[in-house]
């Protein structure tokens, strides 16, 4: 049941210089597909928005743009640290990598908390998903994105653990985690623009 | 499901053994019961009951009553009663592959529990809600309307057990080191999980794209789901084919303790 | 390690049988079974008149259903010993048992809720009753699949000394065939196929009782042969 046909570290010796895509190929499959799925939702958002412009604009007024901006900064900063951490891992500076990834994780953790700060008063004020199409869309998309963030945080923890305990960290795994985290960041940027900013 | 050109006959002829003598015949038999089940499933829910594609949650009472009293619903119910056991066989095909993966048994046992619940709340019960209306046409329209909602919501909105199943399956595929099923399929299964989350909106709204007949809550999910069902089917077939002919249940015939 | 646990649980089967006889004798609410042609008002009157008896059936059926599960589990355990390339039949069997038991217990609950307040709107009582019968019919379909799984797994047993004798497979297929008409009971309100009819009710229950009794004896023998073959303590 637990027979492992391939030694766990066998893919670690892969050559990093031969023009390959960073991270696992299957993760790229996931990321591209995920972007397509979110993309479809965003396109339909635009369509429905076009049909009920007044309703969407009016509802949009109730969103907390401030928290949105802070969250954007947080995710961008976190993404930057992940990128730096990956670079440090690649360069063999494990200590730096650990510190940078820990920072990335710290910033990342602030995101779900701020999301709660954003959501709870809104729900309390009666802006529930059932209120209208805009809010349903808003909670669904931000909720799905939040799930991606949480998943990303879990992946970051494992990346950090790998960098911390193994002498030769699995660079492909670190890259895979980083790529995923950048996607989460990218999704948020689009989401933020569409739901909070667009007038 | 007749699109699949591959058949156990061609598969086994490569090993020079007629298909009916393959040691993996147990798995092939169960595997080929899946298209039978899905054909019956399709027959029951589409042309027999006209339940799918979903009717509007907003239809007026007269329409609901007319639909709920169609005698075809009873034929659909009885076919489903006979065939529902095949859903167990289909899920067992997945579990067997999960067993060959390098992951903990937790995954397949959780999947097992999810399959039991899913068959009842996501398949049998919804059909019964419609069948009951047809069985006794004298029911009060209000009762029929309640059964209509109950049926559709539990068919389209049964989130938890399927989240559990797809979550377990996708994680097992992703974490597996024996390369039983391709890793990208694991990621695809994550979207299956996501479609169940999208479907949560059907409980909230009665109109628009997120209602149970909505463009996003239903149709887009179908766009993700239907190819997945075909793809995983082919992948499971490949996995059975790749399994060494003499690979046995690991626990046979060795440990005595396990069966006492 | 020994097979003592398996045998102990196996002996719960006759206990279930005794519970069944007891329920049949003490609470004759369902003998003869209710006719599907009863109007909601008749159903309500029936529940009001027989509430104690039906409540007894409900409580006992829950117990009987649960007491039979170890019997099916023992079959599944022996199916895992069969020499197939995978445990696919055993897994199917376990899932099917779970679905069947859930349906059976849901049927029970519907009757239980109906007699809990028999002064409810007759329409609702009748609905609960119909739903109960729908769910009561369902396990027939699952037993068909269970028996087919068991039979196929026996036919394909590659062990030199098969776990189950071959006639058990034939027997399972025969009982599966006898169970099939029961699954179509929702289509008819009168005649032998209606849910109180001879094929759907009497034949089905009789087949099931005979099936459990025969399989109980078979399993006793199978477990004893396991003791001999594998040298585990009895």
SSE layout:
The complex is a heterotrimer of chains A (199), B (260) and C (234).
Chain A: H1 25-51, H2 53-60, H3 65-90, H4 94-124, H5 133-165, H6 171-197
Helix pairs in contact in A: 1-6, 3-4, 3-6, 4-5, 5-6
Chain B: H1 8-13, H2 25-48, H3 61-68, H4 72-100, H5 105-135, H6 141-156, H7 160-175, H8 183-198, H9 215-242
Helix pairs in contact in B: 2-4, 3-6, 4-5, 5-6, 5-7, 7-8, 8-9
Chain C: H1 4-10, H2 12-26, H3 40-81, H4 88-116, H5 122-155, H6 166-183, H7 198-230
Descriptive overview:
With 199 residues, chain A is an all-alpha fold. Chain A is 76% helix and 0% strand. In chain A, helix 3 runs antiparallel to helix 4 (94-124) and helix 5 runs antiparallel to helix 6 (171-197). Chain B is 67% helix and 0% strand. In chain B, helix 2 packs antiparallel against helix 4 (72-100), helix 5 (105-135) runs antiparallel to helix 6 (141-156) and helix 8 (183-198) runs antiparallel to helix 9. Chain B is globular and about 60 Å long. The chains are: A mainly alpha (199), B mainly alpha (260), C mainly alpha (234). Chains in contact: A-B, B-C. Chains A and B meet through helix 1 and helix 5 of A and helix 8 and helix 9 of B.
